[in-house]
Design goal:
The protein has 107 residues and is of the alpha+beta class. The chain has two domains: 32 residues; 51 residues, no CATH class. Helices cover 38% and strands 11% of the residues. It is built from four helices and three strands. It has a three-stranded antiparallel β-sheet, with no helix packed on it. Helix 1 crosses helix 2. It starts with 11 loop residues before the first helix and ends in a 10-residue tail after the last strand.
């Protein structure tokens, strides 16, 4: 694999932490920074961005057999997930369906 040399300014404390991690994981600094950059870029690929946008419409229920008053088609949803999950490697999105049904609104 072809590689490039580059210079970057890194805050002192971040550099020290990277040095400690490189020693602990027995990786070169170069390998550590390359791995970190790959991991940072991975969720930002066009495919991942499209998947995130598609997650705002979810298949809820069964299209052929809706249960009770439940929907049987694609519905808009709100992602209700904390940043820790967003930054993790878990490919799960926590979301809540949006509805126009007003319960207990008095209308």
């Amino acid at each position: 694999m072809k590689s490039y040399k580059t210079a970057a300014s890194i805050p002192d404390e971040a550099f020290k932490e990277a040095e400690r991690l490189a020693r602990r994981t027995k990786k070169s600094r170069s390998r550590l920074f390359s791995d970190a950059l790959r991991e940072y870029l991975a969720p930002r690929t066009p495919r991942k961005i499209t998947q995130a946008m598609d997650a705002t419409l979810a298949e809820i229920g069964h299209e052929d057999h809706p249960v009770g008053s439940g929907p049987g088609s694609r519905r808009p949803v709100v992602v209700v997930q904390c940043d820790a999950l967003n930054r993790s490697r878990i490919d799960t999105v926590v979301c809540r369906p949006i509805t126009s049904n007003l319960v207990g609104s008095g209308s």
